[in-house]
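INFO batch 0412 | record 1 of 1 | parsing
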Amino acid sequence: MDSGPSGEEPTSWEERYNINLMPSELFLKFRKEIEGYRVGLNLEFYNAPVNEFEAKLVLKPLAHDRIWKFMYEPIHNDVRILSKKIPITKFLNLQVGIGHSFKLHATGWKWKLTTCLGGDGVSRIRNKTSLVLCPGMDLRFGWRADYVLPEITGAVGTGEPLFNMNSGRLQASLDRVEAILTHTSPKDQVRLYTPFKRYQKRI
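INFO prediction complete | emitting tokens
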């Protein structure tokens, strides 16, 4: 069989096709909607590559055309204002932010291009799937899949094998699990709630 994009051929089917259901990130989010704004407290736990904990205070407008959100990280004593992800193409987004570190007494800009596709011969799908359990209680799962499609080739009279097959590769994982608790007025809960509503958002 042909070797993978990195030049190293997997030695077993377990290495070629692997699905990891142990999330590396666990988030607990509390949200309160006030006068057209959403105030949130995020508790973020990371177990890979090292054990870390972060807390964030988030403020952003509820309007669909919102263009910014404010974040404060009390542990690192950082303040940031981030733009929403601006679509450049169908699969490419741009995000811009400005931040200030009170520890370092420094202010700087950052920008980031994100896509759901991979590179170097490997294709990637990254999605967020949400599940509404009840009014004010959501679960969100962030998952990804890196894959190389199977390929069959052959040749006659060229010195190459008559039949050659690359069985492809799939590496999938459940990266993040989020529990989101949102406090809204009873009127808004009745209007917005649909039992076990599912949707997917490509990131």
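INFO post-check: The longest helix spans residues 186-192.
INFO record closed
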